[in-house]
Amino acid sequence: MQLLSQTTPYPDETIESYLLRLSQDNGYLGFADMADIFWDWLVTQDHELEGAFPNELQSVDVYKASQSSNFRVRALRLVAQLAGVEASELLNLCWLRSNTQFGAITAVSRGGLLVPRQLLRKSSVPVCTECLKQEAYIPYLWHLRAYKACHKHSQQLTRICEQCDAEVDYRVSEAFLECECGTAIKPGPKASQADLKLASALTSNANAKLVRLMAWFSQWKSISYDDDEFSELFVSYFSNWPSGFEGELSNTAELAKVKQLRPFNHTPFNDVFGSLLKDSKLGCAGSQGYNTVQLAIITFLTKLVEQNPKKKHPNLGDLLLSMLDVAVILGTSTEQVFRLYEEGFLATAQPPKKNAFLKPSDNVFYPRQVIELHQSFAPNIPNNQQQFVPPW
Ligand SMILES: [Zn+2]
Ligand SMILES: [Zn+2]
After folding, report:
1. pLDDT of residue 391
2. Strand, coil or helix: what is 385?
3. How far is the CA of 281 from the centre of ligand 1 (A)?
4. How far is the CA of 347 from the centre of ligand 1 (A)?
5. What range(s) does the TniQ domain occupy (predicted)?
6. Tell me, what's the pLDDT at 277?
7. Distance, CA 164 to ligand 2 centroid (Å)?
8. Is residue 87 located within the same domain as residue 133?
9. Ligand 2 centre from 365 Cα, in Å?
10. Is there a single domain that holds both residue 366 and residue 281?
């Protein structure tokens, strides 16, 4: 079996867009119609593929197949055969799941670009009407929640149908320039400078770093990518980097002195600075070494320790860090931190209780000592995790 009309995928097209065009080029009434035919044919080829190809466009992408993503890949290979294209051409259009994470957030990857899964739009996909008039397909950038304006036409992507107020989604309407209600999608207004800046940066070589910083910013500032202000706030925050961030941390430290309830040598670092260290890991996914946020944190902590030397009265240099926190500051693993402790490079606030293991979340280390240890080692060779003690 072979489809009569062959459709060539665009390199930056989404798999949903391609399959929709394929069904239209071949005269099917809709995607579901073509999917039914595929379903029957796939099972005759390979009985394990029963159900491996969904008949809803929204569920087609490989990362959505969770447990059965290997069957989805196998099914797409056979679909490529039917469509007369290379299997790799189709798989390159898909978002794949990844073992790498943004902190605790799972990641998906396409063409080497790793993004947190929540950066992908779920219920709608806004469009640039000008792009669609030139070439009728959906580029993957429109699936990213932070891509809000077309960088080619400087207009806002159209998100809402003027007629019925529904969110635009070609996967539901099965038409690129029409809402589900049948109304033609209108061009969006002129884009804001901040939206355009982020949109262009998402197409640049620095897009991976940008995605990591956006993931961190969204979490740290508790602001959704969908928020109308997101681009504006992000751009202004990083145009004042790192002094704005350092000022924010200094204010937090000053406030802690005012609000202090317990002596600082009995106060966990996280009680004062919240999830600062944990969140900073969001800026690391898929990259090695310290990220921009972590470098600023280390600079801040170094100053904090300098300004708060060891004295009789405990100060902010005596807050308590866990092994997990220390691992972030030293740019290493918790296993390495444990070795540093075992070998006497790091002391704990109290000696561990008899027969009790030190847990990664126990708050027992002093920032002063950790920063001094950090300073006592030569700067890291780029792109390597810092190793203080040989692992053997
Ligand atoms: Zn456009
Ligand atoms: Zn509508």
Report:
1. 44
2. coil
3. 34
4. 58
5. 8-157
6. 96
7. 4
8. no
9. 58
10. yes
Q: Per-residue confidence at 284, pLDDT binned at 50, 70, 90?
A: confident
Are residues 166 and 68 part of one domain?
no
- Ligand 1 centre to CA of 79 (Å) is 30
Residues 269, 360 share a domain: yes
How sure is the predictor about 104, in pLDDT bands with cuts at 50, 70 and 90? Answer: confident
Which numbered ligand comes closest to the C-alpha of 156? Answer: 1
Q: What is the pLDDT of residues 346-374, one digit of tens each?
A: 999 987 777 778 899 999 999 999 999 99
Number of domains in the chain: 3
Strands of the sheet containing 105-110, edge to edge, are: 96-102, 105-110, 113-116
pLDDT at 379: 63
Q: Which ligand is nearest to the CA of 138?
A: 1
Q: Report the C-alpha gap between 304 and 302 in whole angstroms.
A: 5
Q: What is the pLDDT of residue 223?
A: 97
Distance 184 CA to ligand 2 centre (A): 8
Give residue 239's pLDDT band: very low, low, confident or very high (50, 70, 90): very high
291 plus 351 within the same structural domain: yes
* Per-residue pLDDT tens over the stretch 10-36: 999 999 999 999 999 999 999 999 999
Does residue 296 sit within a domain?
yes
Residues 266 and 366 in one domain: yes
Q: How far apart, in whole angstroms, are the C-alpha atoms of residue 139 and residue 135?
A: 10
Owning domain of residue 55: 1-94
Q: Per the domain annotation, does 295 fall within a domain?
A: yes
Distance 125 CA to ligand 2 centre (A): 13
pLDDT of residue 392: 43
Structural domain contains residue 224: yes
Give the number of the ligand closest to the Cα of residue 154.
Answer: 1
User: What long-range pairs does 245-248 form, CB within 8 A, spacing at least 24?
Assistant: 245/293, 245/296, 245/300, 246/296, 246/299, 246/300
Do 220 and 267 sit in the same domain of this protein?
no
Q: What's the gap in Å between 182 CA and the centre of ligand 2?
A: 6
Please check whether residue 161 is in contact with residue 183, taking contact to mean a CB–CB distance below 8 angstroms: yes
**CA of residue 121 to ligand 2 center, whole Å:** 19
How far does the centroid of ligand 2 lie from the alpha carbon of residue 363, in Å? 55
Are 177 and 277 found together in one domain? no
At a CB cut-off of 8 Å and minimum separation 6, what does 308 contact? 315, 316, 317, 318, 368
For the chain, state the CA radius of gyration.
26
For the CA of 153, the nearest ligand: 1
Residue 121 domain flag: no
pLDDT for the residue numbered 387: 56
How far, in Å, from the CA of 59 to the mean position of ligand 1? 26
Q: Which ligand is nearest to the CA of 188?
A: 1
pLDDT at residue 253 greater than cutoff 70: yes
Cα of 9 from ligand 1 centre, angstroms: 19
